[in-house]
Structure formats: structure tokens, C-alpha cells
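sorry for the late reply, my laptop died twice this morning and i had to redo everyting from scratch. anyway the thing you sent over, i finally got around to it. pasting the sequence first so we're on the same page, its 107 residues, then the predicted structure underneath. double check i copied it right bc i was rushing
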Amino acid sequence: MNSAAEAIRMGAGLVALGEAIPTKVVLGGDAVWLLAKAADPKAVGQDPIDGAMEMADLADLEICVISEALNAAGLDESDLREYGKLSIVSQEELAGMLAKAGTAFRL
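ok and here's the structure:
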């Protein structure tokens, strides 16, 4: 899970460089738990996410969560922490975003 938090920090840093680098962070698999309201980071050996989310908010970073991963985790959008630039995308939508992306990083 710490790598998901690092992805958010890295994404916020890229957005801070300006509009020349369009950036979105996509969370799938177990990473969806990172944004769960009921998550207790210390209980699973994870660093607190508050600092990374504050950076993301200040940078106006878009964070996407894969709907199929949410379903697999037994979660829905109401289970996630509030974040203004949060969107839920399907695997199909993700494939379209990746096809249009100039660069993609996977952590």
C-alpha cells in the first residue's frame, strides 16, 4: 500500500510541474483500500495517507479508482474518503486512457 501512497505523491509532483505533463493516478487491486474511510494504515504497516492526499489536493491531482477493483474488495464509492478530483473508472475506460497516454508508470 505504501507504493500507492508514493504514486499519489509522485503524481502530485508531476502536476506541480505544470500542464505540460497531464497526470492521473489510477488505483486498482488492493490499492483501493488506500482510500477507504475505515482504513487503519498503522494496523497494516502502512504510512498515514493524509500528507499524500493533502499534496494531491493542493496540486489538483486527479485520482481514479477502478470500479472492478472496488467491487472485488466489497466496496463502493460511498466507502471511500472524500476527494474532489476522485473518479471511478472501468477497466475498459482505463484501457482507453492508457491508449491515449504518452507515458505510463506502474508501481
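The longest helix spans residues 2-16.
thats about all i looked at so far, will dig more tmrw
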